[in-house]
Amino acid sequence: MRIRLLSIPVSNQEEALNFYTKKLGFVKKLDIPVGEGNRWLTVVANEEQDGPELLLEPSPKDFEPARVYQKELYKSGLPYTQFSVESVQGEYDRLVELGVEFSLKPTVMGTAKIAVFDDTCGNYIQIVEML
C-alpha cells in the first residue's frame, strides 16, 4: 500500500495553481476538466515528479462541510497540511522574498524546526525540517 494522492481544498483552482507552482515551486502534473468549471488538477514536487500528487480540490465551492472545515481550521490558525523541507530557514527566506505571508516564523520544536504560511487559497501550510 502506498500514498499516491492527497488533496487540499482551495477556494480558486487557478489561483492555487499559480501559488503552488510559481511560489512553492511545484509542477503541474494533471489538469483534466471534470465539469461545472472544476478540474482534476494536481501538482507534484519538482524533484519527485513521479512521487505523490497533491490535488488542488475545489471542495469549498461544491461541498459545504469541506468549506466549513477549511474555514474553521484557518480561523483557528491551524495548518491544513505539512510539507517537508531541507531547510525551514532557507524556505522561509525564499518565500518571504516572493511575498508569502507567514503566521509563524521559523521555530524550533524539539527535534524539528517549523514555520507556517498562508497559501492564499484558504489554508495555512506548515513546513518542517527534522533536526
From TrEMBL:
The keyword Lyase applies. One of its GO terms (molecular function) is lyase activity. It comes from the Bacteria. SUPFAM superfamilies: Glyoxalase/Bleomycin resistance protein/Dihydroxybiphenyl dioxygenase (SSF54593). Residues 2-130 form the VOC domain. Keywords: Lyase. PANTHER family: GLYOXALASE/BLEOMYCIN RESISTANCE PROTEIN/DIOXYGENASE, GLYOXALASE_BLEOMYCIN RESISTANCE PROTEIN_DIOXYGENASE. This is Catechol 2,3-dioxygenase-like lactoylglutathione lyase family enzyme.
